[in-house]
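Worked example

This section walks through a single chain of length 191. The input is the sequence exactly as stored; nothing has been trimmed or padded.
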Amino acid sequence: MSPTPRLIACTLALTLCTGYALAQTALAPDTLKVDYFSNAHSSDPDGTVRITNAGTSGGNLCAAIFVYDALQELTECCSCAVTPNGLQTLSVDKNLLDNPLNGISPTTGSIRIVSTTPVGGVCPLPVTGKITPTAGLRAWATHIQSSSRITETASQDATLSSAELGLLEADCRAVALVGSKQGICTCGTGD
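Given that input, the structure is written out below as tokens.
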């Protein structure tokens, strides 16, 4: 007896839903921090991002950083080492927005920081297959508000899904392939 078209359609739909659910699988908790920047390159004060390693992983960590413009396009990415109890301080203007992929520095956008394990003792560019999420980083950012007023907040924790990780890695890989060193941010001061 052959399967009915309805049974085939239901089986296909169930398979697709299962695949989507697997693609959305949450990875290690406490590995993704999200933040924003505003009024970059447009006022005298400069925003900063500060990242520290709480030491809970027992060793060095990498801060895989992804900077997106207001149109949700990756403008820069990099990976910075942070030792246990160390502090990495990055200038929004000089470290995260000074080398944009398209040559145009955005004034507003978002920042994603993934806490990862070093590879062979170094923090490689966070491209496909180079990121192993590992909990332990904390981050804060100053934001330049209207009238050059400065606020500071802790970066927000978010659940890192395997789908989001794949998109971040693929975006950074694309920047590395087409950017000819454009689109690669720098690590600032600290570790």
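What to look for: Helices lie at 5-23, 92-96, 162-179.
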